[in-house]
């Protein structure tokens, strides 16, 4: 594509987003004078100086969003969903406060807003921006998302998010009960633009978790764009677990941006399971701002049909005595395609760093494809670091062994595939979430 043609296409896409924002802004009524709206306008104005990624960009060379960018996206609106439907999306055995969003809009009557665990507080972003205790930090987090030079989708999320939330974990609070955010896509007859926004602040010496599940109602086969933004600040000696199980419609485009900042002696653990969607792009990054931190990334992806799942991870070791552990596993079948690009930087001052990264994939058909690029850049000399990647097929000797024990060929292969992915899921501390993820994986493998 010529430069002129590319610029024309960018201009057309930007004009459509601006027109959509004008419609969105016109419906805000009195909310246009609130602090959040200043950030919204800054988000849409970033389109003046930013372009959408193409496959000419190194980090996007295997993934194209052209199909989504051509969609006549529409603003989301309330869709009626009954309690029985939401109950069917609950995680069996999980004791959690439930927050329900349908097409990105809060369903108050279906949510447990009055049952947020002691030690936690859940605030709408608009309200948090008026809270003297946190408004400065919230503004900085959103401003940083808007000004991200490499990611126009974070700025778009800030511009269009309707029901963003701030989850606060109070200092010294050890909260065993998580918050479960149910994201549900519901059919509207047109391609909707959904922008889930979650900001997490954990106080010093605290511990907490949030579980996010993404699902679609039957009939939600109309294309839609889920543009997710999550920012997490983990305080001194705090420990936070973020779970995300994505089982969107096969017509969905999903772009997820998760960024964590860790203070001294803290732990941040991310658990991502990607089963749904048409084109899925995950950007996960962590900035270490104190010594003695630990970062854990666990990811599972399963692409069948024509699914495309792209995981981009980044960990910046800038200070000494920190560790990171990263394990991603996936299965590609039919014409499914997977991408993994994981980068770990160990800077000159980051002595005594211990970093591990591994990506392993099974490719089960001749038309499936996996592109993997683990990267480890080390500028310090007293470190223990390793990284690797494997792409292979099922071990036929293992299949033969299981068949000799009475299993059919299909049962043997499914069991080996389950074991391959469950190796990652087993790292989830919440048993109910782990069991739920395994059930979904088992169902999709059949």
Describe this structure in words.
With 446 residues, the protein is α/β, with parallel strands linked by helices. It is built from 10 helices and 21 strands. The strands form 2 sheets. Strands 1, 4, 5, 7, 8, 10, 12, 14, 16, 18 and 20 form an 11-stranded mixed β-sheet that branches. Strands 3-2-6-9-11-13-15-17-19-21 form a 10-stranded mixed β-sheet, covered by helices on one side. Strand 2 and strand 3 form a beta hairpin. It is globular and about 70 Å long. Belongs to the iron-sulfur cluster assembly SufBD family. InterPro entries: Fe-S_cluster_assembly_SufBD, SUF_FeS_clus_asmbl_SufBD_core, SUF_FeS_clus_asmbl_SufBD_sf, SUF_FeS_clus_asmbl_SufD, SufBD_N.
What is the structural class? alpha/beta
Mean pLDDT: 95
Largest sheet descriptor: 11 strands, mixed
| Low-pLDDT sequence parts | none
Strand content: 35-45%
Care to count the β-strands? 21
C-alpha geometry? globular
What are the defining features of this structure?
alpha/beta, 37% strand, 2 domains, 10-stranded mixed beta sheet, 11-stranded mixed beta sheet, SufBD_N, 446 residues, SUF_FeS_clus_asmbl_SufBD_core, SUF_FeS_clus_asmbl_SufD, 10 helices, globular
């Amino acid at each position: 594509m010529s430069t002129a043609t590319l610029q024309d296409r960018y201009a057309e896409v930007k004009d459509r987003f601006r027109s959509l924002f004008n419609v969105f802004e016109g419906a805000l009524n009195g909310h246009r004078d609130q602090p959040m709206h200043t950030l919204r306008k800054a988000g849409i104005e970033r389109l003046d100086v930013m372009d959408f990624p193409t496959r000419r960009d190194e980090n996007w060379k295997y993934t194209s969003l052209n199909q989504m960018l051509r969609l006549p996206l529409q603003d989301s609106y309330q869709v009626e969903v009954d309690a029985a439907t939401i109950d069917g999306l609950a995680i069996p055995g999980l004791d959690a406060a439930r927050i329900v969003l349908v097409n990105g809009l809060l369903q108050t009557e279906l949510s447990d807003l009055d049952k947020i665990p002691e030690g936690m507080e859940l605030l709408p972003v608009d309200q948090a921006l008026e809270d003297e205790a946190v408004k400065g930090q919230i503004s900085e987090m959103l401003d940083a998302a808007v000004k991200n030079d490499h990611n126009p989708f974070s700025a778009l999320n800030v511009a269009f998010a309707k029901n963003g939330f701030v989850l606060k974990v109070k200092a010294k609070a050890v909260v065993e009960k998580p918050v479960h955010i149910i994201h549900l896509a519901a059919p509207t007859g047109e391609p909707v633009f959904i922008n889930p926004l979650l900001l997490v602040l954990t106080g010093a010496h605290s511990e907490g978790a949030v579980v996010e599940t993404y699902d679609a109602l039957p009939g939600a086969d109309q294309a839609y764009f889920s543009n997710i933004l999550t920012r997490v600040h983990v305080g001194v000696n705090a420990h936070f677990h973020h779970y995300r199980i994505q089982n969107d419609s096969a017509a969905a485009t999903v772009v997820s941006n998760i960024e964590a900042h860790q203070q001294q002696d803290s732990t941040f653990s991310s658990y991502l399971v990607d089963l749904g969607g048409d084109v899925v792009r995950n950007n996960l990054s962590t900035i270490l701002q104190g010594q003695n931190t630990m970062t854990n990334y666990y990811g599972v992806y399963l692409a069948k049909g024509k699914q495309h799942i792209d995981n981009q991870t980044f960990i910046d070791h800038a200070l000494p005595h920190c560790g990171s552990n990263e394990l991603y596993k996936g299965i590609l079948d039919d014409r499914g395609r997977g991408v993994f690009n994981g980068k770990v930087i160990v800077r000159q001052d980051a002595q005594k760093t211990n970093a591990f990264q591994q990506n392993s994939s099974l490719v089960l058909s001749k038309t499936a494809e996996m592109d993997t690029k683990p990267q480890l850049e080390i500028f310090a000399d007293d470190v223990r670091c390793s990284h690797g990647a494997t792409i292979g097929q099922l071990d036929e000797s293992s299949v033969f062994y299981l068949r000799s024990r009475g299993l059919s060929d299909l049962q043997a292969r499914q069991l080996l595939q389950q074991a391959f992915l469950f190796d990652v899921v087993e790292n989830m501390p919440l048993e109910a979430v782990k069991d739920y993820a395994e059930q979904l994986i088992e169902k999709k493998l059949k």
